[in-house]
Amino acid sequence: MKRPDNGLPEDIRDHMRLMCDILALAFQTDKTRIATLLMCRDISGLFYPFLDVKLAHHLASHEDTTDAFMRINQFYMTQYAYLIDRLAAMPEGESTVLDNSCLVFMSNMWSGSNHDSTKVPVLTAGRLGGALETGRVLDYTLAGDENRRLCSFYLSLMDRMGVTLDRFGDATGRLDGI
Fold it and tell me: What is the full DSSP assignment across 4-70?
């Protein structure tokens, strides 16, 4: 891997790839197995001329049914896919770094036009050393608020990582099916 140039990349595409590469290397070298990568702030004024989107990210999110906002989201999904591919290509024992990890991708809003965060999309990749089943869609939209808390999801993941807590945030229970 070529050493990156000094300073922050001017182009968000280069910056995202660099951040994903750093995270992948940290996992591969076992410097950490827990990381947060904030790809974009909630009120971002970031523009995407390479996507032919004329609105800043935050303003585009208020028009969340448009093709422009879909292109922005697709861009971020390609970054997630890039990180998944990087980890999947890194051997680790009899499996890969991805197999022994869990990547969580989410948004803080279901609908930017309605400022609706009553449900949020969450994607996971990786098997967490066999503790997670993959290739499924779990839909908690009809489970009721008490049975679909995001903090319950976190408790479920922590259990599978050997961290047992009675509560986390606003949750005391786990999500069924995780």
Answer: PPSS--SSHHHHHHHHHHHHHHHHHTTS-S------S-TT----BGGGTB-S-HHHHHTTTTSHHHH
Dihedral, CA of residue 149, residue 124, residue 163 and residue 97, to nearest 10: -170
List the chain pLDDT tens, one digit each, 178 residues. Answer: 678 778 777 888 998 999 999 999 999 999 998 899 988 877 778 889 999 999 888 888 888 889 998 999 999 999 999 999 999 999 999 999 999 999 999 887 777 777 777 778 899 999 999 999 999 999 998 888 888 889 999 999 999 999 999 999 999 999 989 9
Torsion angles phi and psi, residue 6, rounded to 5: -65, 150
**C-alpha to C-alpha distance for 149 and 147, rounded to whole angstroms:** 6
- 175: Cβ contacts below 8 Å, ≥ 6 apart: 138, 140, 147, 148, 149, 152, 153, 155, 156
β-sheet bridge partners, residue 106 = 122
pTM: predicted TM-score of the whole model, two decimal places = 0.89
CA atoms within 13 A on the CB side of 17: 10
Q: Please tell me whether residue 81 adopts helix, strand or coil conformation.
A: helix
